[in-house]
Every structure is written in C-alpha cells, then in structure tokens.
Amino acid sequence: MNLDDLLAALTWRDLVDFVLLFTIAYAALRLLKGTRALPALVLVALLAAAGFVARELDIVGVGVLLRYVLEYIIIILIVVFHQELRRLLVRVGQRLMPQSRREAAESAVETLVASCERLVKGRVGALLILEGELDVLEICTDVGKPIDAPLRAETLVALTVPHSLNTAHDGAILIRDFRIARAGVVCPLSTRVLDPRFGTRHRGAIGVSEDSDALVIVLSEERGEMRVVLGGVISESLDSGELEERIYAWIDRPPPSAGERGPGSSASRADMGVELVDAEGSGARAQAKSGASASPGGLG
Ligand SMILES: Nc1ncnc2c1ncn2[C@@H]1O[C@H](COP(=O)(O)OP(=O)(O)OP(=O)(O)O)[C@@H](O)[C@H]1O
Fold it and tell me: Boundaries of each DAC domain copy (predicted)?
C-alpha cells in the first residue's frame, strides 16, 4: 500500500482518533514534564514499541516476553508513582475548575498566613515548603514522615511546636496541593556564603529553593521574623500582608517554560517581588522589586 492508497483509505473517524490521541499524549507529557514519572513513561513506550515490532516481525519469544513484562510493569508503575498519579488527577481537576482552585488557594493562603502569625508571635521557628511543579523530596536529605492532612492552622501549629513528644517538629513541613503532605523533612543545605544571622534553618530554606521551584516560608525562632525564599533568594523580613502578597504572586506565577528546571524562573521571582541579579563571581545579589531590599541569600 503506497501513501496515496493510505490517504484514500483514511476516514473522518481516523482523523478524530489521531487528533484525540495526540491531544491526550501531549497533555499527559506536559503534566508529567519535570516529574520522575516521565522517564518511566518513556521506557514503557519504548518497550511497547519493541513489543509491537517483535509481533509484526513474528519474533514470537521476545514478543510474548515483552507482553508479560508490560502487563506487570504497568501495575508496578501505578504502585510506585501513586503520588504522582494523585497529583496529576488533582491538577487536571484544578485546571478544569479554575474557580475551585482559586477558592482552595484563597483558603490555603489565609490559613498559612494566620498560622505563621501565630507561630511567630509564640516565637516558634518553622520551615514551610510550598511545593511547585517539581518534586522537592528528590533533593531533600530526609523525606520526613507522611502526614497527608488538610491545611489547618491547628495542625501546622501542633506539628511545629517543639516538644519531646513531637518528633515531627524538627525539620520542614511539606505543603503539596494545598495539603500538609509531610513533616520532619530535612532540606539540603545551601553551600553559599550567607549572612551570619542565618543559621541552618535559613540555609536549608535557601538550599531547597535553589534546586526547585518551591516557595519556602521560613520563620525565625530567634528573631520572630517571617521571610520567604524563592530560587535561592531570601526576602527581607515580611509582615502578614506582604507574606500574603508573596504567596499569591507565587501561586499565580506563569507555568515554567519548556526545558526549564530548578529554581523559579526570573519571571516567577519577579512576580513575587524578588529578583536575582548575579554579581561577578560573588554569588548572587537579591533585591526586592518594590525597592525594599531583600536579604542577600548568597552574598559573601
Ligand atoms: N536542613 C534543614 N532542614 C529542615 N529544617 C532544618 C534544617 N536545619 C535546621 N533545621 C531546623 O531549624 C532548627 C533551628 O536551626 P538553627 O537555629 O540553626 O536555624 P536558624 O536559621 O538560626 O533559625 P532561627 O532563626 O529560627 O534560630 C532546627 O532545630 C531544625 O528544626
């Protein structure tokens, strides 16, 4: 059959079929971009293609083997990537219902700001990681303990108050899809030269944000200050209104462009009011967009 015959045999159903398959594959790849599930999906696609070729060429043994491998691999992938699948479904739901996403975001921001105010007033230090598109656990030294609870001020306070019986208070709290996902997460420490006012909590906040697109809220126990860190840049001390603004700016950031990995793009950093200017050989200099100075996360 030549190309002309093939085109002549095409019906409108084939076209609809092709367009739908293409759209589904494109949407799935966009949603999985930057997650650890994508390489696994590519592997499955390659195995499926190899199985198809083996069957077409009548290579029976390999064809049967690949069929069995694929059957089991799909079950294994569902178990291994159940978190990613859950997030994928949540995101699809949020994209289909922007209004419900907005309401969830507003309620989450209100809870976060109220919790931070309470903690700072009580001089309780905390590190809250708001996960973006990239899986921060891949870069954390210790993934902590699973919590999987709704975002509530009472829960956040209970998890952060230092007490010998509260084993989760040491480390960071991971907030994923507006839920408390984990506690006791240990962030990678930034290796940059930092202002001596900042100890390991702030170093961890900067470290985790250097290699992810997460927004990190850091509450200082010592000074009772609230700051945010994005793309390795730590803000100045914020009041509640400013904290709220920064979180909204981060939530409303544009999606990362193709191939972009790691810290929030310059666009998203600018959106939250902080931009990063590389200084010659001396790390980075941070400035608040509004003119207020951001603390130099990487200044030596
Ligand atoms: N890498 C890390 N990841 C997550 N949490 C951390 C990390 N390092 C330290 N912490 C948390 O920070 C707490 C206090 O650390 P430290 O006093 O050195 O930080 P700091 O930056 O000076 O903060 P603060 O101003 O609140 O004292 C630790 O008890 C621990 O709960």
Answer: 82-240
How many angstroms is it from 292 CA to the middle of ligand 1? 25
Residue 199 DSSP class: -
Whether ligand 1 lies within 6 angstroms of the CB of 189 is answered as yes
294 lies in some domain = no
pTM beyond 0.80, yes or no: no
Model pLDDT for residues 54-80, shown as the tens digit of each residue: 888 888 888 888 888 888 887 887 887
Question: Minimum mean pLDDT among 19-23, 36-40, 63-67, 122-126: which range?
Answer: 36-40
Angle made by CA atoms 32, 34, 36, in degrees to the nearest 5: 75
Structure tokens at 206: 């900067």
- Report yes or no: 270 and 289 within 8 Å, Cβ to Cβ: yes
Determine the residue of 201, 202, 221 to mutate for testing ligand 1's pocket, defined as the one with the most ligand atoms within 8 A of the Cβ atom.
Answer: 201
Domain of residue 160: give its range. Answer: 98-287
Out of 86, 114, 132, pick the residue that ends a domain: 86
Is the beta carbon of 187 within 6 A of some atom in ligand 1?
Answer: yes
